[in-house]
Amino acid sequence: ACGGGNAEQPADETPAAEQPAAETPAAETPAAEQPAKSDIKIGMVTDFGGVNDNSFNQSAWEGLKAFGDASGIEYNYLQSAQDSDYIPNLNQFVQEGWDLIWGIGFLLQDAMLEVANQNPDAKFAIIDGVVDAPNVASVTFKEHEGAFLVGVVAGLMTESNKIGFVGGIDIPVIQRFEAGFREGIKAVNPDAEVIENYTGSFAAADQGKAAAATMYNQGADIIFHAAGATGDGVFNEAQEQKAAGKNVWVIGVDKDQSITFGNEITLTSMMKRVDQAMQTVSQSLVDGSFTPGIVNLGIAENGVGLPENNPNVPADVLAKVQEFSDKIKNGEIVVPETPVE
Amino acid sequence: MSGWDIGSDLIHITLVYATALMFGALGGLWSERSGVVNIAIEGMMTIGAFTGAVVTYFAGSPWIGFIAAAVAGAIFALPHAVASVTYKADQTISGVALNFLAVGLGLYLTKLIFDGQGQSPNLASGGTSLMIAKVQIPFLSDIPFFGHAFFEAYPTTYIVLALMLVTWYILFKTPWGLRIRAVGEHPKAADTAGVNVYLVRYMAVLTSGAFAAMGGATLALTTTASFSHSTVAGQGYIALAALIFGKWHPIGAVAAAAFFGVVTAVKFLLPYIGLGHVPLDIISMLPYALTLIVLVSFIGRATAPLASGVPYEKGSR
Amino acid sequence: MNAKERNTDVFFLPLIAIVLGLALGAVIMLLGGYDPIAAYRALLNKAFGSMYNFGETIRQITPLILTGLAVAFAFRTGLFNIGAEGQFLVGSLASLYVGVEWTFLPTVLHAAAAVAAGALAGAFWGALVGYAKAKRGVHEVITSIMLNWIALFFVNYMVKTFFLPAGQQRSVAVAETSYLNIPFVTELFSNARLSFGFVIALLCAVFFHYYLFRTKGGFELRAVGFNRHAAQYAGMNVNGGIVRAMAISGAFAGIAGAVEVLGVFHYQSVLTVSPGYGFQGIAVAMIGGTAAFGTVLGAVLMGILTFGAAGMKFGANVPPELVNIVIALIIFFLAASGIIKPVTRWFRARKQRKEAA
Amino acid sequence: MAQTPNFVVEMIGITKRFPGIVANDDIHLRVKKGSIHALLGENGAGKSTLMNILFGLYQPDEGEIRINEKPVAITNPNVAGELGIGMVHQHFMLVHNFTVTENIMLGAEKTKNGIQLDQRKAAEEVRALSQKYGLAVDPDALIEDISVGQQQRVEILKTLYRGADILIFDEPTAVLTPQEIQELLAIMKSLVASGKTIILITHKLKEIMQVCDTVTIIRRGKVVDSLPVAGSNPDELAEKMVGREVSFQVQKKDTVYTETMLEARNVTLADDRGVKALDGLSFELRAGEIFGIAGVDGNGQKELVEVLTGLSKPTGGEVLLKGKPIAGASPRSISEAGVGYIPEDRHKRGLVLDFDIGENMALKDYYAPKFLKSGLLQYGRIYEKARELIRQFDVRTPDERTKARALSGGNQQKIIIAREVDANPDVLIAAQPTRGLDVGAIEFIHRRLVEQRDQGKAVLLISLELEEIMSLSDRIGVIYEGKLVGIVEPSKTDEKELGLMMAGANAKEGAAR
Ligand SMILES: Nc1ncnc2c1ncn2[C@@H]1O[C@H](COP(=O)(O)OP(=O)(O)OP(=O)(O)O)[C@@H](O)[C@H]1O
Ligand SMILES: Nc1ncnc2c1ncn2[C@@H]1O[C@H](COP(=O)(O)OP(=O)(O)OP(=O)(O)O)[C@@H](O)[C@H]1O
Ligand SMILES: [Mg+2]
Ligand SMILES: [Mg+2]
């Protein structure tokens, strides 16, 4: 039940070497069979969410862990207890000479800018933020594109024509989720009503639960959450409603959350492949091809999308999703980044 | 949405939300009525949430977890009793220590047990929920409005309401209660009347720990589904406020906790009454601002049990 | 017990409490399968290992001194200020406002005005608590708790409404003229964010002591704190005293908020949770025996432990929460000092035996 | 054995040490069954300590206790209760927001079905007991609503309810009115008549002479003497107790009235509900006199003092100080205008117990220029002044930096007197200035009050002790239900008449101006 075991996603770029290593009985494996040791060190700093929030931060950590275990580099993370910890935590890695330092999340943006400017020789990468410095790779996602696709699923599958969106903190990243989601629904089901609720936190499962409870009680049958651990509460509530005989669904976020919460309540998930981005950029460092600058990953780049398996989504709906996915990919549809009601 | 549905839902969510606070406030009541100030409700709830989540995870039953939490809460309260009763410590300071200890211990042990993770595994994950399930009282839950509002709730809500009555009965109708109240008002009088002041205070503080911890377990087992740093997150202090607000009376304290529940639940229902666009911060501020206004304008002076906060030293004047 | 013994106890008890707290913390680490020596070494290394870390440790200590003083001051006047958290936040907001808007002021003056604004805002927030208590009899604990939350959301609202650059989760930066940082010091400490705020905090501790024990205002507040009936009869303004005490207490916390904005971040973030300095301040004040100098030492200890904690995780993989346990134990032993009295007695006996030999 | 007299209580060689003091030093005490045995001694002599040991609140360091000739170990009050020992404490041990019955049954509760309190049964028992011993109280009344005298009856009932045969009374009359005292003494007699034994601690020699059989005198923790009361006299007892001769006669110069210093005109004070604590009260206080206010506790004395000192604002009428209205002025401005005040409750109003003596002595003039220099308090001068007052007023303390809390009641009172007298007020209000003090301390304080009067100051003396009022006052006003029902001169009245007036019977004419 520990979250770590679920990390292996069918992922195109993952080196195949990883699979056999995992299958050999671990205890007596001689060191020789492990991938070659490397003296490269990659660290990451999280905000206060921590590395097992069942979504964003966890995804990042799992990506780094998978990459580290596969490539034999050293890796570690530091969790920040308060805002003022970001800079010292980044600096801790800098001072000990780590080769690449990740900042996980939008909230680290300012801290990273400052530390990156003060340490031009160190290399940094940030997820979900843009840091304009010559030694930082900024990885952002087109969440609105992925959210559009799950919006299509929701719009086609809702029976009550009432759909909920639970957001964490009201920040641009999360607004992109909402914007795409609304747009996707509108594209296939203009009559559906969307109720939104920002809880103001990424770590308050109780609030997520209460928000979901009101939405379901007021007739929504599908809720999409983009709220980190707050979203756990949405799943908990859905499970309860399901047990009481109501036909309700949750659309997960960041990872394929059906793995954690089961297919009974998880309709599908909006995958945001933070883990893969972590691996790709980290790999570029090992290869010596690390390039600072902005990478913006959307459907075309395979950075966002639906999971491989969607047992709860009928084929015709998936076909529609594919159709829209192609349209977005080829630029026929441009999804807005801020919510339009 | 009809106003009735919203009203019914408001009560429903209030009860879900306020249950843990009610446990906490009743917990504080036991201790403070015996003259031991308890600002450690927060810590006791934290330990309860931790124990409830972890024991449930391993034992596979939320009720085992719930009971374990009560026991753990009582044990955790012991140092507070030792410090404030036996060693005549400043009770506020001892409470502060316990609050720090609870967060430290809870997260340290979580990380130790779960391989460095700062959060215990989600109890509702993997398809089978280990959470406490809501009950629907047969027939009653079918009544329009009232059914959903009152008779479709977590058993913990009914437990805490029952415990409120039990607390009231013990406190005001039994010899034990008479002694607890006497010790809280005038320990020396109780002592000279042959009441063992120390024993009464020890028992009261331990009971306090058990009650508050049940509140923490309620959070973990009915709402958050796991233990983490944000499970209790200040609700112990709100429970303390409810206790004072409720003027140290079991029914008052529970009612005050319910008041907090209502003002919090309103936050989630605003979108349905056309107030969805009020800024989130203003909405979030609402429960606290309303409480403050009510306090300052209507409630006013509340007097704590006379001897609360004063260590009792046998033989001093 | 004679006076001399009492004096040595004042000194020794905290020392023993700290040693015992650390020792028990080590035992807990051993039980958890960690290496306590490596952990403490890593902690100290993180706190003092480089000029940068040392500077950041001071940065961490600074607000703790101030919120510690806030709690201690109220405590001395018979009030429990659990609301330093909120006073801290409104202090940040006010200094942010002055720091951003009052750019017509020259360098030093601008910073001073911004700090003063923080102090005033904190004082106002504290005075609200005092007013509710004095005039309406509302218990200060409950008002402070409410005001903490109100401050959190109010400050967020204000920052978002008036100071937020598009697409950010923090305010615009304050003008450089309002910075509390001293360039050559920053350089000396390799860009650590310590600032003149540390000196302000120490000055506040001096003020705390002098005001409380050497001025007539302090005399009044202490009298009100100990026995408001006697104070009232002696002609002191009891209600005014309560408001004043809470205002001064709040001012300390407000300055802490100002120092964070002007000396550390230079902006104010939109916060999801309070930074926690107010609650840590309670612990600091308790460790320091609610005395000025003690509070400074308490903050130093607390700052080292909390800032060093990250190093412990890094160097020995020990969960940083362990320091909370250590802090709790220290406070606990101080509160219930009877538990450790046997230890002091044993020390004394041994010393006497040695002297006799 | 049979021929030795029947001692119910024997305390043999009891020693009890507190840090820095031997409170009881090899004390021997033997109490005969069916007698009233007095314990006499100065403040701090060790009387309460000895009785607390007998009651199981303290453990003696040395010595033995025998009850009914059997050695016993009284480890706590429960054991004492089982041995038939009950105690009526100096400071009442009553929970103020409990009913009479609840207080009486606390610790010895009656239950029905084994769980629930049986208040009715207990109340019936209380009623029966109060009838049997003539202790009228309402079993259902709240303690905070009944008079001090009634509270004391509750204390006595508490012991009887537990079946006590040996009753200890620690200064039971300090808070009672003359009538109540007489009633109490009668109750004690009737208790003894029904086979109980009583140990009585009191500072009032008259009471000892009136009801006691034997008296044991303690000085500084040691027994000085133990003797039958018959054949002794108050002077002898006082001298044994203090170790010197004590004068009960207050020496006063002849009265020389001058101008009116303080005047109350139709002062009314009503609370929120309109209940009048003061109801059109009027009097004049003249320079050079001690004006005594006699009355049963709770008839408006407390409220009168609060109005005069500025702690409350009257709802009607006028208060004039040297002709200027002061009603509603702040305590400070009244005090600065020349009113001093010795409060009735020294712990609540008189002292900040956690301040040291120096600070307490400066409590009202800490802000005066003599103690301030550029905004800073001059502690050097504060302590210098304190040392001077300590010498002048004979305060027994190690030094001026000792916390007030650590002093005995008498010495605490001296700090207040020193502070108030030193301020040299034109009007000195003294409320119960000698409550609970021993004869030596009382003598000292009385002399100070008379000194003030003789210097031409006006003194308002409010006391429940008729004897004190009679011996000190030049004129006496009797307060009843918030009104002065009569003003008389001590030479033209007696305690009996005053007592009647205090009870509201037929006010003497020529009263209230
Ligand atoms: N708990 C205590 N701790 C320390 N010293 C005490 C304690 N109780 C009493 N003493 C000291 O013991 C001595 C005797 O006190 P005790 O109360 O027996 O006097 P007392 O004769 O009853 O006086 P009073 O007439 O004022 O009631 C005093 O000097 C007092 O300071
Ligand atoms: N813990 C203590 N340490 C030292 N002395 C104490 C302690 N407790 C009580 N005393 C002393 O015991 C003595 C008797 O106390 P008690 O309360 O009987 O005072 P008192 O003189 O009778 O005054 P009053 O009757 O007005 O309270 C006083 O001298 C008091 O200061
Ligand atoms: Mg006594
Ligand atoms: Mg006395």
From TrEMBL, chain B:
Swiss-Prot/TrEMBL keywords: Cell membrane, Membrane, Transmembrane, Transmembrane helix
One example GO MF annotation: transmembrane transporter activity
Residue stretches spanning the membrane: 6-29, 36-57, 63-83, 95-114, 153-172, 198-221, 253-273, 285-307
Entry membrane topology: Multi-pass membrane protein
Subcellular locations according to the entry: Cell membrane
Pfam family, one: BPD_transp_2
InterPro entries in UniProt: ABC_transp_permease
Domain of life of the native organism: Bacteria
Keyword check for Ion transport: no
Any one of the GO CC terms: plasma membrane
Coiled coil segments of this chain: none
Protein name, entry field: ABC transporter permease
Source organism: Paenibacillus antri
Lineage, top ranks: Bacteria, Bacillati, Bacillota, Bacilli, Bacillales
TrEMBL record, chain C:
GO cellular component terms, semicolon-separated: plasma membrane
InterPro entries: ABC_transp_permease (IPR001851)
Origin: domain of life: Bacteria
Keywords attached to this entry: Cell membrane, Membrane, Transmembrane, Transmembrane helix
Pfam families: BPD_transp_2 (PF02653)
Gene Ontology MF terms in the entry: transmembrane transporter activity
Compartments reported by the entry: Cell membrane
Membrane topology note: Multi-pass membrane protein
Sequence intervals crossing the membrane: 12-37, 57-75, 87-105, 111-129, 141-159, 194-213, 242-265, 277-310, 322-340
PANTHER family: ABC TRANSPORTER, PERMEASE PROTEIN (PTHR47089), GUANOSINE ABC TRANSPORTER PERMEASE PROTEIN NUPP (PTHR47089:SF1)
Protein name according to UniProt: ABC transporter permease
Organism for this UniProt entry: Paenibacillus antri
Automatic annotation (TrEMBL), chain D:
Keyword terms, alphabetized: ATP-binding, Cell membrane, Membrane, Nucleotide-binding, Repeat, Translocase, Transport
UniProt domain ABC transporter: residue ranges: 9-245, 262-506
A GO CC term assigned to this protein in UniProt: plasma membrane
Pfam families, sorted: ABC_tran
Membrane topology: Peripheral membrane protein
GO molecular function, one term: ATP hydrolysis activity
Primary localisation category: membrane
Location within or outside the cell: Cell membrane
Family according to the record: Belongs to the ABC transporter superfamily.
Name the record gives this protein: ABC transporter ATP-binding protein
Native species: Paenibacillus antri
